[in-house]
Design a protein that fits this description.
The complex is a heterodimer of chains A (363) and B (137). Chain A is an alpha/beta fold and 363 residues long. Chain A is built from 19 helices and 9 strands. Chain B has a 5-stranded antiparallel beta sheet. The longest helix of chain B is centred in the first third of the chain and has 18 residues. Classes of the chains: A alpha/beta (363), B alpha+beta (137). Chains A and B meet through α2, α14 and α16 of A and β1, β5 and α4 of B.
């Protein structure tokens, strides 16, 4: 398919009706976290959008980010990749391998120099270039060479954005993020382990639609998706405000869906769209499934002191929260007293509870 | 979606303290309806942009009820366009060809734009119709 064709031309040649296109635009607006009033603007821009060349580089990563992207459902990623962008290199998804694959990358770079989008997932080892290579080229060399002609760089996942798990203490490979190395190009960080599929496609679509970089926060993340903390948008937030917390994974509070703050939830310090965009076709997100947020879209989340350790600093009015918490404690005490002590002892004998301390044990 | 056997028992209860976003949303719809009647201006709400607890989306749908018109659109997968029990308030649900949810909107308008035949498609159809005459001659 010719790159000179606009997306409007492509859709027309596929006999997609105007209604179908407008529906696509509505889903796109929702995906980009833009208000529905922007749908006509998106339609106008997308009609004229030309398919940008995308070169996708995978370095020290687990392929989870690509797995996430290929589970993006709105619009279908096949539609996005084949209609809306020209994915010229992605060594996991492309058919070509070896020299042919590298030739495709070089050809795309030469043909679109200065205009292509470089997408990176995975961190880059700097301790020894031999730790991670593709076709004999070190990750560092491939990154720096490909970055030269890129119009913009999108760092997908926490590894590419902040170093991620390879960067975790003691960082044996000397792993660093894209922004640690590339200094002269606009970089959009799309962290998450993995990022929400809709957020990946949303950022790609923003660039495609408007040809610009979305507004970013101080960590280079698009504000549309990373502008609010998980805590602020969490449906369990009212429980936090009332001081109603789950203390273990199987207590009354856990069953009633109370706040997971005391179980180590990193929602208050984590900025991502999970609480509204959700996962698996909008089914749920970790907190909705009863597990605290790990804070996977934040720098150094792996070294943040333990997934099941409560954050030490409450985010809000400490006195108010403490009063609520004390109130909840009294209520819990009354409930416990009402239960027969013999019954409780029997239950404990039959069922050994896993405590937070067990989960935190080093060995 | 098929649920794994036994999952029902694991289901986390929904306590009484939900997000409290249902009432404000209904209020927003009320204001939008007043605006529609006074100025003719339409509005839309993306349901995905609002934090909702499990069950709250159903609560909203239940509160809005079902009205007189329901239409199915078949373009890049099915879409349901349904007037709610409040005339002028429409629930638009888009699915892709694999029947996965693509978006859910509440539109406050007299007729959702998707129901009107677009000029581009009318022109395209006209051309095809004219082509038939040309073939017959």
């Amino acid at each position: 398919m010719s790159k000179d064709k606009t997306l409007g031309d492509v859709l027309k040649s596929q006999r997609i009706s105007r209604r179908g296109f407008m529906k696509f635009c509505a889903a796109t607006a929702s995906m980009m976290a833009l208000p529905p009033s922007m749908i006509p603007v998106i339609a106008q821009a997308l009609e004229k959008a030309r398919r940008p060349s995308v070169i996708w580089l995978s370095f020290q990563e687990c392929t989870g980010c690509t797995e996430s992207l290929t589970r993006s459902h709105a619009p279908t990623v096949e539609g996005l990749i084949f209609d809306a962008i020209s994915l010229d290199y992605h060594h996991t998804l492309q058919a070509a391998s070896g020299h042919a694959a590298e030739a495709a990358r070089e050809a795309a770079m030469a043909e679109n120099f200065g205009n292509y989008i470089m997408v990176v997932d995975g961190s880059i080892p700097t301790a020894n270039p031999g730790y991670s290579t593709i076709a004999g080229i070190s990750n560092l060399d491939m990154l720096m060479e490909t970055a030269k002609g890129a119009a913009a760089v999108i760092a997908i996942g926490t590894c590419a954005s902040f170093g991620g798990i390879p960067h975790a203490n003691p960082n044996p490979t000397g792993a660093v993020s894209v922004s640690d190395l590339v200094k002269d190009k606009p970089i959009i960080n799309v962290p998450g382990c993995p990022p929400i599929p809709m957020v990946i496609t949303g950022v790609l679509t923003h660039f495609l639609t408007f040809g610009t970089i979305p507004e970013l926060d101080d960590l280079g993340r698009p504000k549309a998706f990373y502008g609010k903390s998980i805590h602020d948008r969490c449906y369990r937030r009212p429980f936090y405000d009332k001081g109603l917390f789950a203390e273990t994974f199987d207590d009354e509070g856990a069953k009633k869906g109370w706040c997971l703050y005391k179980l180590g939830c990193k929602g208050p310090t984590t900025y991502n769209a999970c609480a509204t965009t959700k996962w698996n076709e909008g089914t749920s997100f970790p907190i909705e499934s009863g597990h605290p947020c790990l804070g996977c879209s934040e720098p150094d989340f792996w070294d943040a002191g333990g997934f099941y350790k409560a954050l030490s600093i409450p985010t809000e009015d400490i006195a108010r929260t403490a009063v609520y918490a004390a109130g909840a404690g009294v209520a819990a005490g009354v409930a416990l007293g009402a239960a027969s002590r013999a019954k409780k002892a029997l239950a404990e004998k039959r069922h050994e509870k896993v405590t937070i301390d067990d989960l935190e044990k080093e060995d | 979606m098929e649920q794994t056997p036994g999952m029902e028992e694991l289901r986390i209860e929904v306590g009484d303290a939900l997000t409290h976003n249902v009432r404000p949303l209904l209020n927003e719809i009320r204001h939008a309806l007043e605006k529609l009647l006074a100025t003719g201006e339409s509005s839309a709400i993306d349901l995905r942009s609002i934090p909702l607890a499990p069950g709250e989306e159903e609560q909203i749908e239940q509160a809005l009820g079902t009205g007189e018109i329901s239409a199915m659109l078949d373009a890049m997968g099915p879409s349901e366009i349904r007037e709610t029990g409040y005339p002028g308030v429409w629930l638009v649900t888009h699915f892709n060809v694999d029947r996965q949810l693509m978006g859910k909107f509440i539109e406050i308008t007299r007729v959702p734009d998707l129901l009107k035949s677009p000029d581009e498609d009318i022109a395209d159809g006209l051309q095809r119709l004219a082509g038939q005459f040309a073939e017959q001659q």
